[in-house]
Structures are given as C-alpha cells and as structure tokens.
Amino acid sequence: MTTTTLAQPVSSPSPRKRLVSTNTLLLWVLLIPIVIVLAAPVWYMFSKAFTPEANQFKYPIVWLPDPFSLTNFQTIFGDRSLPILRWMLNSVIVTAVGTFLVLAVSSLSAYAYARLEFPGRDVIFAVLIISMMIPSVLQVIPTFLIARDLKLFDTYIPLWLVGAAGAGTIFFLRQQFFSIPHELEDAAVVDGAGRFRVFWQIALPLVKSALVATGILIALGFWNELFWALIMLNAREVITLPVGLLVLQQGGYVQRGMAFAGGFIATLPPLIVYAIFQRQIIQGMATAGLAGR
Amino acid sequence: MAATQALAPSVTSRRSQRNRWKKQLPNYLFILPHVLIFAVFLVWPIISSLRISLYDWKIMLPPDQQKFTGAANFTALINDAVWWKALEVTIRFTIITMILNIGFSLMVAVALKQNFTGRDLFRTIFFAGSVLSVSAVAIIAARVWDPQRGILNYFLTDVFGLPRIQWLGTAQTVIPTLAITTVWWTFGFPMLAFLTALQNIPEPIYEAAKIDGAGQWQTFTRITLPLLTPTMLFVVSTQFIAHMQMFGQAYTLTGGGPGNESRTVWIYMFDTSWRFFRIGYGAAMAVVLAAIMIVVTRVWFAVFRNRFEY
Predict the structure, then answer these.
(1) Which chain A residues are Cβ-neighbours of B286 within 8 angstroms?
(2) What CATH number did the domain enclosing A263 receive?
(3) C-alpha distance from residue B295 to each of A167, B281, B302 (Å)
(4) Mind listing the pLDDT tens digit for each residue in B73-99?
(5) Could you tell me if the ipTM is greater than 0.95?
(6) Are B289 and A137 an interchain contact pair (Cβ–Cβ within 8 Å)?
(7) Secondary structure (H, E, C), B277-310
C-alpha cells in the first residue's frame, strides 16, 4: 500500500498495474469462500457416490472416496426396478421436444403479434398479457382433470402443453421482432415471398440469439420440472430423472450411496453441458434478464 | 342524393375491407397453435379452478354430478388452522428468501462488475447451481443439514465446539434453512440480471459523481440503486412469484415437517388434492393464494411505477 502511493508520482503504468492487482486480490479473498461454500457440497456428493455404503457415514467427514469403488453404480444399474438411464433418456425427451415445441409455437405467435395484421390482434394480445399476471397455481387441479379425461397420464403431452400454454416467451420474442428493422422483410414481400417464408427465412434468423436465450431458460425449466412430472407420471419406465431421484430415496432404497450415485448421474450431464456452453448460456440469461425490465 | 353519393364509397370500402380480411385470414394460422393450447391448458383451467372451488368436488364423479356448496370451501379455510399455518409458512419463507437472495446476488453482482482477473470464471461458477434439479439439490442439502452426520454440524461441533443444530428439525430453523438452501441453488439468475443492469450504467455518470466528491457508499445508494430500479422491480416480482409457490425444496427435504412447520400452501394444496382427494378444497386454496399474489404484485407495481419515474 505504501509502496504504491510512493511509486505513484514516478511512473504511471506500473503502479496502476499494482493497484489493479490489489483490487483483484481483495475480490478473490471475498469471492473464493463463496465458491467453496457453493462447490463443497456438490464435491461431497460426487465423492460419496464413489464410496461404498459401509463407509458412507464415516465421521469426521472424509472429502475423498474411501476407498474408491463403483458398487453404488453397480447396485443401481443392476436393479431393474431403477432404470436410471431410462429416466435420463425420458428427461432428455421431455426437455428436447418441449423446448422445440415452445419455441416453435411461441415464435410463430410472437411474429404475428409483432408484424402481421388481422382483426382482433391487439385484443387477443391483451388477453395474453393479462394471463401472464395470473399465478400458475390456478392451473394445477383442472389440468390434472383434463389430462385424466383425455387419457394423457404417463405421457409427456401435458408437460409439453402446459409449458407451451404460457405467454411469457411470446411477449419476449415479440419485443425482439420489434427491434429488428423490417426493411428486409418488406423487400422480400415485394419479391413475392409468402408470409411464412418471410418469417422462416428472414425474421427468425435475425432473432436467433434471443431464441437461444429463451430456449435455454425453457430447457432448464423442463429438465428440472418436478411438480407436473409428479402428478402426471406414475409408471417406473416413464418417470423423469427428478422424480426418479426421489424414488431412489424412498422405501427399500434408503441406501445413501445409491442416492449420491443417482445425484451424480443426474448432476454431471447438465454441469458438462453448462461448462461447454457457459458463454452462450450466461449471455442468454443476461439477455433474458435484461428484457424482463 | 346525398345518400346515394355517400353509399358508393362505403360499398367499395366495405368490399375492400372484405378483401383485406380475406387476405389477413391466413395470419391467424400463425397464432392458432398457441391460442388453442392457451385456451385448453391455461384459460380453461383458470376458469375451471374458480368453479371447482365452489363445489365439494369428488374426483371420481363427472362434472354434472358434483355438489355445489357455494362459499363453503372458503369458510372452511377460515377455520382451518393448518391453512393459516401454511399461509404463514409460505409468506415467511418468501420474505426471508427474497431478502437473502436479492441482497446476496446484488452483492456478488457488484463485486463481479469490477474488472479483475478471473472474473468470468467466478461468474460461470456462481451460475452453475441453477442448472441443478431440485431433487439433486435435495440429495446434497439433506447431507449438509443432517443433524448427526451433516457437513455443517461437523464444522460447528467438531471444529468449533458449538452445540448441534437440528437445522430441518425445529420450528425456528426449518424455514431459514430452506431459504438458505434456495439461495444456494437459485441466486445465479438475479445475480446475472443485476450484473447486466450494472454493466449498462454509463461510466460517465460515475465519473461525474466522483468529480462532485461522492463517496463509494453514496454513489451506490444515490446512483447505482436508483438506476437499478427497473431490474429490481423485475427481480422482486419474479422472486415473489417463485417463492410464494414454493413446493420442491420442502417436499423433497422435509415433506412439510416438522409437524406443519414447512408445509407451504402449495404442499398443503397438493396433499389435500392428491392424498385426500378433496379437489374442491384444494382449488379454493389455489384461488386464495393466486388472489393474494395478484393483489401484492399490483400494489407493488403501482407504488414503484409512481415513485421512480426516470
């Protein structure tokens, strides 16, 4: 501290550099404990996933597998009533199809409300806006009854349609369509392109980053959905990973190691996907967060 | 004379209007898929919830054989001690979680706004928790808070010699414990929202403040916070809506216990409807919770829209 103040009058670049690094150091001291608090429990789960059941409750706490073993995974994969890979596949299907459906349905609508003219457009859009103010708690019971009457239990259709019914994505994408210049679209219309072609080939590519941003939010929602999956899905082969993890902790399966192994299997893929696409995901979340203002 | 003259243009305009309508008709195809889904899975359920809440609805009977009971479900709520407990638990959880989540995420966002080595890495790590599912969070958190073998109590008792705490096991601690778990899991999103907003504040404003001799705290409270108001409104309302409808954390970690100390409205509604099959009573709970949420958000927006107009 004294050296920096002393050095200041002599030359400007070098103390500047040192000042920045003091700042960096200070922030590190502040932020690294937070990283530890966030990461330690996850690390603990990972290490316990590879620890045999007998050593699960070793005390004081051991932060590494002791000894390293794959027995927990062998028990899960060996138990036919716990098809965890099937659950993961189910979750992937729910997430992939659901995200695609919501984006397709919402971007079509958003484009129409932003660019096309038809009687009643503003009235319908106003209804959508009002619907956004109504909490989803009101959807729960009747949707369950509808799904029962349409014989949709143990299918993913209710999960997808409940996801696609909301107007939030439309509202967000409509603003994105407003923000792109419509000269390009006008030129295409003059050239005789149909409305759908203009939407598909010109407008949609221009809002690609916004689509990715909301797509990530939507995908996260489907991947982590617990409540709707809990009331709609019953059969062991059709449940999704979040419900399956609860099964791992129930009844005859109170083996700690298995729960941790299941948690490991459920946690690692999203973390890897996140690590690979973190730039796009962070950017996307920031865009979505900013648009929310 | 005047009438015939006036008629001619109106006929053509009507015809051109009809032509325009015909041309605009295909535009409805764009909104049709969503409008259908919206009608069946959002509008109808909302109306239906209001209706079911007025019935003693039996899950096995068809709609025309349900018994209309008027406001009976709502008067039953008034006399239901568990309901009042659920409401209290939900509101307490919402307030504690919002304060912790907003305070913490704003603090981290302010730190990450600085330019320093490793900033992007920190940002990436801080958001990582948000990709976990609530069930995975529960597996992890159950072991963190475990009174006998938990990570936290290990440090409290074995390292610092403090008494053991039954984190999820007592009326006083269960809600704060669930709130901290929720912050651990979800603070990434408000953090990113704040961070983006902070980065969009033009630097010259800060330079001007510095020239005027404003201190760091003064700059934060007088410049940064007011300029964050739109983002704050957004974060507060999304947080409020999310936490008032809390289900997963308590369902997976405590099942509503000990006693009813973490039985949120959503869990009570779930139990009432799916364990005891009192659908009408469950719907009444949903209606009251929704009404409370709508009123609070409306008031909130009305107050802040007027107070901060920039």
Answers:
(1) 137-138, 140-141
(2) 1.10.3720.10
(3) 20, 21, 11
(4) 999 999 999 999 999 999 999 999 999
(5) no
(6) yes
(7) CCHHHHHHHHHHHHHHHHHHHHHHHHHHHHHCCC
Distance from CA of B7 to the nearest CA of A (A): 24
- Indicate if A70 and A174 belong to the same structural domain: no
Using a CB-CB distance cutoff of 8 angstroms, which residues of chain A are in contact with residue B228? none
Cβ–Cβ gap A142/B133 under 8 Å = no
DSSP A74-116: HHHHH-TT--HHHHHHHHHHHHHHHHHHHHHHHHHHHHHHHH-
DSSP-assigned letter for residue A240 = -
Residue A138 predicted with pLDDT over 50:
yes
* Residues B153-170, mean pLDDT to the nearest whole number: 86
pTM for this one? 0.88
Q: Inter-chain contact A143–B244, Cβ cutoff 8 Å?
A: no
Q: What is the per-residue pLDDT across B238-264, written as a single tens digit (0 to 9) for each?
A: 999 999 999 999 999 998 889 999 999
Whose tokens are 């289900």? That residue is B247
Domain of A149, in residue numbers: 81-291
**Does the beta carbon of B310 lie under 8 angstroms from any beta carbon of chain A?**
no
Task: For residue A163, give the amino acid letter.
Answer: G
Q: Assess whether A8 and A89 both reside in one domain.
A: no
Nearest by CB to residue A137, choosing from B25, B245, B279, is: B245
In the numeric block, which tokens belong to residue A287? Answer: 């865009």
* Residues A63 and A203 both lie in one domain: no
Contact B108 A267 (CB under 8 A): no
At the fourth CATH level, the homologous superfamily of domain B90-254 is MetI-like (1.10.3720.10)
B151 CB neighbours in chain A (<8 A) are 40-41, 44, 61
Select from B122, B135, B238 the Cβ nearest to the Cβ of A245.
Answer: B135
Residue A47 shares a structural domain with residue A88? no
pLDDT of residue A60: 76
Interface contact B241-A195, CB threshold 8 A:
no
Verify that A136 and A187 share a domain, yes or no.
yes
Q: Which tokens sit at B279?
A: 């659908």
Q: Which chain B residues are Cβ-neighbours of A135 within 8 angstroms?
A: 241, 244-245, 289-290, 293-294
Last residue of a domain, one of A20, A40, A75: A75
Question: Which of B100, B113, B133, B272 to mutate to test binding with chain A, by most A CBs within 10 Å of its CB?
Answer: B133
Whether A15 and A95 map to the same domain: the answer is no
Preceding amide of A67 cis, omega within 30 = yes
Encoded tokens for A145: 């009854």
Domains identified in chain A, total number: 2
Which domain-ending residue is among A75, A94, A129?
A75
Could you say which DSSP state residue B163 is in? P
The amino acid that residue B34 corresponds to is H
Between B302 and B307, whose confidence is greater?
A: B302
> Which of A58, A162, A222, A293 would you mutate first to test chain B, the one with the most B CBs within 10 A?
A293
Give the distance from residue A6's alpha carbon to the nearest chain B alpha carbon, in angstroms.
Answer: 23
Residue of chain B whose alpha carbon sits nearest to that of A117: B24
CB contact under 8 A, A31 and B111: yes
Kindly state whether residues A49 and A89 are assigned to the same domain. no
A12 and A127 in a single domain? The answer is no
The rounded distance, in Å, linking the Cα atoms of A183 and A178 is 12
Calculate the CA A280 to chain-centre distance: 13
Identify the residue whose tokens are 């000269």: A183
